[in-house]
Backbone:
């Protein structure tokens, strides 16, 4: 069974930091690109950051989070992380972990259930 389980969300003041975690199981992470998405109230889900698991160096960030957020992984623990610094109220939303696994026949996309991040004073 594929599982992506996010944790680490919470309430933080503007300018603060949070570290989100995502535990992955049930699929081959080495064939995957793993990403964080977020969804603010009343808005569509949007891309935040991604990392190619096999090399760990190929990363991508949304312009709105560049220089503030850092995506990383732990191979041994099969964990994906998102370090979020200098948080702003507009970073508020539900953060989702996503995995896109590429196989010979097709690509599979998996989602976690999300973790709430609220940035407010």
Residues:
């Amino acid at each position: 069974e594929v599982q992506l389980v996010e944790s680490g969300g919470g309430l933080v003041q503007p300018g603060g930091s949070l570290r989100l975690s995502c535990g992955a199981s049930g699929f081959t992470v080495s064939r995957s690109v793993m990403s964080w998405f977020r969804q603010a109230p009343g808005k569509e889900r949007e891309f935040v950051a991604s990392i190619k698991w096999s090399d760990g160096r190929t990363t991508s960030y949304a312009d709105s989070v560049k220089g503030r957020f850092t995506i990383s992984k732990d191979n041994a623990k099969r964990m994906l992380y998102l370090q979020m610094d200098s948080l702003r109220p507009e970073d508020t939303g539900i953060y989702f972990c996503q995995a896109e696994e590429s196989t010979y026949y097709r690509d599979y996309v998996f989602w976690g259930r999300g973790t709430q991040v609220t940035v407010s004073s």
Remarks:
- The chain has no helices and eleven strands.
- The longest strand covers residues 93-102.
- Residues 39 and 45 are 4 Å apart (CA to CA).
- The radius of gyration is 14 Å.
